[in-house]
Amino acid sequence: MIKDFLFHVKYAFLLFPFNRKKHLARKLKESFGSLKSDTFNFKQIESYFRKKDHYNAHQVITDKTCNDLDFDQLFMFLDRTNSRVGQQYYYNKLRTIDVNPAQTKLNEELIQTLSKDSDLRIDTQKKLEALNNKDAYNITCLFQEEHITPPKFFFVIKLLSFISLVSLLLAFYNPLFFMVLIGVFCINFVVHYWNKNNLIPYTGSIPQLLKLNNIAANLHLNPLFQKINPNLSVSIKFINAVKSKMFFFQLEAKLQGEFEVILWFVFELFKIMFLIEPLLLFDVLKKLDTKRNEIENVYTFIGHLDMLISIASLRHGLDTYCFPDINKGLVIKANQIAHPLIQDCTTNNVEISDKSILLTGSNMSGKTSFIRTIGINVITGLTINTCFAKSMSFPLLKIFSAIRINDDLINNKSYYFEEVVTIKEMLKESHNGSQNLFLLDELFKGTNTVERIAAGKAVLSELAKNNNKILVATHDIELTDLLSNQFDLYHFSETVENEKVGFDYKLKEGKLKNRNAIKILEMNKYPSGVVHEAIEISKQLDKKYS
Q1: Chain-wide mean pLDDT for the chain?
Q2: Neighbours of 173 (CB within 10 A)
Q3: Residue 124 pLDDT > 60, yes or no?
Q4: Are 183 and 248 part of one and the same domain?
Q5: Do 205 and 248 fall into the same domain?
Q6: pLDDT at position 253 over 60
Q7: Burial of 62 from C-beta contacts in 10 A (0-12 / 13-18 / 19+)
Q8: Which residues share a beta bridge with 334?
Q9: Binning pLDDT at 50, 70 and 90, where does residue 312 land?
Q10: Are 346 and 404 part of one and the same domain?
Q11: What DSSP line would sit under 360-379, residue for residue?
Q12: How far apart are CA 155 and CA 109, in angstroms?
């Protein structure tokens, strides 16, 4: 019986890698099209984007616009990548508008194949999963950051290493050299642990680079994937040329388990004796410093492939999506457009042609969500060729927003001052020679009514020039008359029945006519005197401004 038990244990142990791979394949197949269950460390996810040179990009989406459009939440919905490399690359792609029709065509060809060929997709995903370690975030440091340089006394390190080697060899002939070896070892011990601080940033990134290069070499054998970068093999070979010296870092990373303690101790003594760490570290960094472009080429190949699988997964899980028609016209048109983050979102149709759009409506009726819906769909359409609509067309746009503005108490700036600075930047961009989409919510609400309406009208009239498109929401009904020549009027409305407020979130033509704010006060049991006085004042103001 004991023999049978041991046989089954041994058999199960041998099958463990096979069962693990089988389980991973099943998991990847079942999760295709589903949201990612993972934590998001945006500081590390953003690191590639923050240091990337975007000089040739049509536009980089600003932090302000990202905050206005809830970009972090949007990314968590869109991201279905399998590697940390793909995650960083995908984030950068979504914040960088750079339309390339030839690249888009190739992307769609690859996405279609990966969507249909589940075996190819899952095999690729399994390889990419090997780069899901958090240390993979740090690969970008190897080609985006300055490397540490050898200290001025580096020649002493080389000399100490040489003395150790000579002393060890001569000790077999003269025991006195053992004393020299022990003395040098003590000095080397200090140097070795001084160098540990230099080594720490690279003990994770360099092993991950080796893994990245191996995976890229394997995936690049596929003729379909070669289309992403036909010349990638050159970059792979360049990195392989340094592979033998980087193997030390890979070995260092592997000796972390409890059973490797003894081996680690022996290895550590060997490294101290000959100062292997500082000698190899600075030599490897010197060589990697000359291969930054090659490392980034391999990085972007893996990131781009992972991103395409993520887009395929996203689309697979959607009920409705479309490819945008990015044209040279002046019209923004959407059919059954939806906000991707709103569950069971009410869809709307809209066309922005000769005039921009001014939205009126009460709070919670859907104005701001609709503005965000347009902004998000334009961004995803321009970056990943995917819109959350039945159909959508628009020109190549730059997107700017002023939706969510807060007081800056740390720098002693009021809400109004922050808004003034933001709108000033928009006015500047309105003359940038590009077609722009400006998204605004409640202009100048940090000031009094008369000046708010006056300044709002002047700013919106200026922004509307030069074929710019504007979506602006306001509670100031007076603006609907002042801007009727430049803006089409639309509204969202609610119904108040049986002491309940209902919203249909449907975009309607014309300005809002019914007003329910005071009615809602009455429904919430405000004192009758307050309600009555509010109604009377409202009537007087209507007469004054009618």
Answers
A1: 86
A2: 8
A3: yes
A4: yes
A5: yes
A6: no
A7: middle
A8: 350, 392
A9: very high
A10: yes
A11: E--TTSSHHHHHHHHHHHHH
A12: 55
